[in-house]
Amino acid sequence: MNNEVLAIVAGKEITNADVDAFLSNLPPEQRQYASNPYFREQYVEQVVTLHVLEKMADDLQLDMTEDYKKMLANIVRDIKARMAMNEIMKGIEVTDNEAEAVYKINPDNYSKPETVSAKHILVADEEACKEILAQIQNGEKTFEDAAKESSTCPSGQQGGDLGEFGKGQMVKEFEEAAFAAEIGAVVGPVQTQFGFHLIKVEAKSDAETLAFETVKEQIKKNLLQQKQQQAYTAKIAELKEKYVEQK
Fold first, then answer.
1. Which domain does 232 fall in, by range?
2. Are residues 166 and 202 in the same domain?
3. Mean pLDDT score of the chain, rounded to an integer?
């Protein structure tokens, strides 16, 4: 299939392999469309267009111009620089032992804070808030139905669900009430700058230190970036000392 001829431009055969080579240089978000026959046909057209334009440039002998020579020199320079960069980074790696040593120095850096999962109902008036609370407490309405009917917060359409949050993510008054509330209890009215809230805590999670295995890959990624930056900085300083003439 890769040798299948899709078009012929000035005697040159354009094959599936040429299209695949073109696709390999596209950003990942564009490459994912390649399996779709419609989009692949568009890419085939792009490859044909590139070859047509190349033939035009040949006919005009644009490769003999000074602009071409300057552009080519810049491209060659960039390729050489990228290849040299790859040489600097070659062989740099991070072992599990190195990552674990970093983890053990300060495991508190890899902790999950205390969180709560809560729902709320927000209204502008305190008396209205108290009335809704009474309706929930006497079983006239569920918290979720009351949120859908009365809450002015967009979360009302999801029964007031705010999901999981930690300290520092909500306004002070709301946060203090939510973290102090018992699971399943409805507390309020709680006044904040936004109005009056009823809060129902669904779950709580204590702060915990994450296991090394959970954070190992992130630690290794951070260490690798640090090592690469150090290697790059040292090598550039060495090369400047060697090649740059002082004025």
1. 66-113+210-247
2. yes
3. 91
Peptide bond into 37 cis (omega under 30): no
Q: Are residues 130 and 195 in the same domain?
A: yes
State the helix-helix crossing angle for 96-105 and 212-243, rounded to 10 degrees: 110
What stretches in the chain show pLDDT beneath 50? none
Compute φ and ψ for 187, nearest 5 degrees.
Answer: -115, 150
Q: Number of structural domains, the chain? A: 3
Q: Comparing C-alpha atoms, which of 153, 165, 168 is closest to residue 120?
A: 153
Burial category of 9 from C-beta neighbours within 10 Å (exposed 0-12, middle 13-18, buried 19 and up): middle
Q: Of all residues in the chain, what percent carry a pLDDT higher than 70? A: 99
Compute how many other C-beta atoms are within 10 angstroms of the C-beta atom of residue 195. 19
Would you say 193 and 171 are in contact if contact means Cβ atoms under 8 Å apart? yes
- Are the C-beta atoms of 89 and 231 separated by less than 8 Å? yes
Query: Tokens 């000074």 identify what position?
Result: 66
Residue with tokens 């779709």: 36
In residues, how long is the chain?
A: 247
